């Protein structure tokens, strides 16, 4: 069983952007602070990643998320996707993802929160 960590941004209009999908190198259940991650993912099929993107987008809309949302999923047999947790805030890996995708996610989240209030 492997774990994926996904960073997303949502605004008050229901728009959701996936900032990055990180694959944990260690098995699911290991504290993310104790596990190395890689971005982009290397193990999962396009169908699995599409499922994760779709679930995250639906979840952000359902929760009326505004700003950062961090989700963690467990993946079994490269296809079965289970949500472990969803947090409506930035996590400590946002700077890493921002560097990897060359976009300042924290700055974008601040802007989204500012124009949504």
Automatic annotation (TrEMBL):
<dbReference type="GO" id="GO:0005524">
    <property type="term" value="F:ATP binding"/>
</dbReference>
<dbReference type="GO" id="GO:0006541">
    <property type="term" value="P:glutamine metabolic process"/>
</dbReference>
<feature type="domain" description="Carbamoyl phosphate synthase ATP-binding">
    <location>
        <begin position="4"/>
        <end position="112"/>
    </location>
</feature>
<keyword id="KW-0547">Nucleotide-binding</keyword>
<dbReference type="Pfam" id="PF02786">
    <property type="entry name" value="CPSase_L_D2"/>
</dbReference>
<protein>
    <recommendedName>
        <fullName>Carbamoyl phosphate synthase ATP-binding domain-containing protein</fullName>
    </recommendedName>
</protein>
<dbReference type="GO" id="GO:0004088">
    <property type="term" value="F:carbamoyl-phosphate synthase (glutamine-hydrolyzing) activity"/>
</dbReference>
<keyword id="KW-0067">ATP-binding</keyword>
<dbReference type="GO" id="GO:0005737">
    <property type="term" value="C:cytoplasm"/>
</dbReference>
<keyword id="KW-0436">Ligase</keyword>
<dbReference type="InterPro" id="IPR005479">
    <property type="entry name" value="CPAse_ATP-bd"/>
</dbReference>
């Amino acid at each position: 069983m492997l774990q994926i960590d996904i960073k997303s941004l949502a605004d008050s209009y229901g728009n959701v952007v996936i900032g990055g999908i990180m694959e944990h190198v260690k098995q699911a259940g290991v504290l993310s602070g104790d596990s190395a991650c890689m971005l982009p993912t290397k193990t999962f099929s396009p169908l699995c990643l599409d499922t994760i993107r779709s679930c995250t987008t639906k979840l952000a809309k359902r929760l009326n998320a505004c700003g950062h949302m961090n989700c963690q999923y467990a993946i079994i047999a490269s296809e079965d996707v289970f949500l472990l947790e969803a947090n409506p805030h930035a996590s400590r890996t946002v700077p890493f993802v921002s560097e990897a995708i060359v976009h300042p996610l924290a700055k974008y989240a601040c802007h989204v929160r500012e124009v949504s209030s």
